[in-house]
Amino acid sequence: MLSRKITDGTEFVVFDMEWNQAFPGKKYDFEVSELTGEIIEVGAVKYIYDNGSLVRKGTFSEDVRPVKYRKLHYHVKKVTQKTNKDLEQGRPFKDVYEDFKRFAGVDAILVGWGNSDPAMLKMNLKFFGMDPKLGMEFLDLQPIFSLFSGQSGQQKSVESAVDFYNIPKNDIFHSATADAHYTGEIFEQIFSHNKPSEVISAISSSSVNPDIKSEFGFIGRDCPDAESAFAEVSSFVSKCPICGRSLTARIAPFRIRKSKYALYFCSEHGEMFSRTRLKKRKDGKAYATSVLRFATQNDYYLVASKKEEFDKFGEKGAPVEVKETEDSQTDS
Ligand SMILES: [Zn+2]
């Protein structure tokens, strides 16, 4: 959480990328895990915030010629409706990225749908020997949309958000340029349908620095029972993983089913969300895995709604069949 100030003149660069991927089973002369996707298209729309709304200032659209995954993976082909010929007509990644940086400027906040795009951009920069620092804050618009559309905690596609606001569908989805435009229009709609001060507050508390590690994990040792497994990881969440200061609990740890949730506070780094999960080994031993991360809008919602459930139903949680995937949606 950075609590970035948003004032008249603040610039936002809404961006989206498409990437090609390796063919399963094919041999490559490099480590595929270091390049899980090679960027083939970058699309972006620049906005300036002015007096409660977003003013469109420019657009960016470039195809990139891949050098590692040159043939379109069938899945990418199907989703993006691109052809191998399209790929050949793209420009080198380095050139496109430099143009994109010039387009974005130095002070803008990057905005995307989901948080996979900045991670993929950084991976490509690193793989191709360029500086992986983006040097800009990043805002994931997806949880902001969920919050303001009354669907907190749910992961919605760009298309369902476009439908929600009745935005005309003049283009296909899953082209970087079209998706950046759609995401920009959703961003505009969020401002025009809500109090700008509330939108700004949500945005400020949700933008993150993509260049620093914002999530930390810990796996406890095997223990004879659940209680000792939870105790095993409790020291991990007692100190800030960045500065080592003691964390104070804003919402003290509480257990629902196999997970413990809490909201902590570091005087230097702000609020941090934590979730600890209990796991079982085949031999009956228990262990716990913990994550601690800068709390985002989604995390506040998650911990608040779980606390509500806990206060009402206790450790066993609501007596309905709850899908296990419910929580994992916020992990992406
Ligand atoms: Zn700290």
Inertia-based shape: globular
CATH topology of the largest domain: Nucleotidyltransferase, domain 5
Q: How many structural domains can be distinguished in the coordinates?
A: 2
Q: Write the element-wise H/E pattern from the N-terminal end onward.
A: EEEHHHEHEHHHHEHEEEEHH
The CATH C-level name of the largest domain is Alpha Beta
Bound molecules: zinc ion
Q: Give me the secondary-structure category.
A: alpha+beta
Unreliable spans are: 325-332
DSSP helical segment count:
11
Looking at CATH, the homologous superfamily of the largest domain is: Ribonuclease H-like superfamily/Ribonuclease H
Description:
The chain is of the alpha+beta class and 332 residues long. It has two domains: 11-204, Nucleotidyltransferase, domain 5 (2-Layer Sandwich); 215-331, no CATH class. Helices cover 33% and strands 25% of the residues. The chain contains eleven helices and ten strands. It has helices at residues 74-80, 84-88, 93-104, 116-127, 141-148, 158-164, 176-193, 196-204, 226-234, 297-313, 325-328, and strands at residues 11-20, 38-50, 53-63, 109-112, 137-140, 215-219, 248-256, 259-266, 270-280, 286-294. The strands form two sheets. It has a five-stranded mixed beta sheet with strand order 3-2-1-4-5, with helices on both faces. A five-stranded antiparallel beta sheet has the order 6-10-9-8-7, sandwiched between helices. A hairpin with a 2-residue loop joins strand 7 and strand 8 (259-266). Helix 5 (141-148) packs parallel to helix 7 and helix 6 (158-164) crosses helix 7. It is globular and about 60 Å long. The two termini are 17 Å apart. The model is unreliable at 325-332 (pLDDT under 50).
